[in-house]
Write a structure and sequence with these properties.
The chain is of the alpha+beta class and about 375 residues long. It has 10 helices and 19 strands.
Length: about 375
């Protein structure tokens, strides 16, 4: 899907929502629509750098002096508006020039103060929250996106192979996290897809715990949740490895988590609700008399680490029926967490194709003891 097709899909929202224009503030949309690539799209300090304004007849990028040359290089076909003032008056002038009266904006991204300032600066423009309408815009990935995701998962897989030989008793969680980032950078990745989770032993029972100075201990697990960002696209993989042979109960729990992932895989198909897939994994663990994970089973992944679709006990806003469709890319990540003892999670990235479910992360997910 080239830029003309993406622009056409975005402009279709104008008709669907009865709008004259759209403002795109999310870094993922800036790159997907215009090619404008922020070094760290999740850094809020970028403010409204590279804000896109789209109407039926115009496509503009607002950028201050820090990004003018970048926009010229990366956004052919887009009109550059060189900004020198705060966001609100600049956007108000642009909207007035384009004759925009009803304008869609990302309420989930713009701060309350920015939204209020813009409303005051452009009193003749009605701002409409269009987050739900935009949720499905990037949900089906094209061949270019799948290729980029493949490069991101390949780097992540290579890093896991490296870690199996590098992790040893005495290594600290923070050292492991840094080694992952070092490997990604040297392998040519743009950076981390998200902050790495590296947890040892009982600390692995925290699904999103922060790496600490805790050291790897023989007889315990090491939970690794990490991913590379390549060409803007992100991988997200979790592996739980054992340092030394696991006891029978730990092996049973691991097999339960792996079985839950396999049950979820078997439940996936076009038209199947994400809630059904989530339930298949939960039921597999619960049927063994073990408390299953409390988080969602999975999420879409692409230019953002978490995007539509959602595989959880509730659907995703704006996603019709919450169903999975051919072309979507998402994670499946069941887990078991027993505070004070152990945490186990297995996560992979998948592409739902016309021929079935394809696992993008290729690292072995069977029980590994080092």
């Amino acid at each position: 899907m080239g830029q003309p097709e993406r622009l056409a899909r975005a402009r279709a929202i104008l008709d669907a929502e009865g709008l004259d224009g759209l403002i795109f503030s999310r870094g993922a949309f800036k790159r997907w629509l215009a090619g404008f690539a922020l070094a760290d799209p999740d850094d809020p300090s970028h403010g409204y750098a590279g804000t896109l304004v789209l109407t039926r007849g115009a496509a503009l990028v607002l950028a201050d002096s820090r990004y003018v040359e970048q926009v010229i290089a990366e956004c052919p076909g887009w009109e550059l508006v060189h900004t020198t003032r705060p966001a609100a008056p600049e956007l108000a002038d642009v909207l007035a020039r384009l004759g925009v009266q009803r304008c869609g904006a990302e309420a989930a991204v713009l701060s309350h103060s920015t939204w209020t300032d813009l409303a005051e600066a452009a009193p003749n423009v009605e701002l409409i929250a269009v987050d739900s309408a935009l949720a499905g815009l990037r949900i089906v990935k094209d061949e270019t996106e799948i290729a980029a995701l493949g490069r991101a998962t390949a780097v992540t897989d290579a890093c896991f192979v490296h870690l199996l030989n590098w992790i040893a008793v005495g290594r600290r969680e923070v050292e492991i996290a840094w080694e992952i980032e070092r490997f990604f950078r040297e392998a040519g990745a743009e950076g981390l897809a998200f902050s790495t989770i590296a947890l040892v032993g009982p600390r692995a029972a925290m699904p999103h715990g922060e790496p600490s100075d805790e050291r790897v201990v023989a007889g315990q697990v090491v939970l690794l949740d990490f991913g590379a960002r390549v060409d803007g696209y992100r991988a997200d993989m979790t592996r739980t490895i054992f340092v030394g042979a696991p006891d029978d109960e730990s092996r049973r729990l691991y097999d339960l988590v792996l079985g839950a992932q396999q049950a979820a895989e078997a439940a996936v198909g076009p038209g199947v609700a994400g809630t059904i897939v989530h339930g298949a994994a939960v039921d597999h663990i619960a049927s063994a008399g073990v408390e299953p994970f409390g988080h969602g089973l999975g999420h879409g992944i692409g230019l953002q680490t978490h995007e539509a679709p959602s595989l959880s006990r509730v659907g995703y806003p704006g996603q019709s029926g919450g169903t999975l469709e051919v072309g979507m890319v998402f994670t499946i990540e069941p887990g078991i967490y027993q505070p004070g003892r152990i945490g186990i999670r297995i996560e992979d990235d998948y592409h739902l194709t016309a021929g079935g479910l394809v696992r993008l992360t290729q690292s072995p997910n069977h029980l590994i003891a080092i």
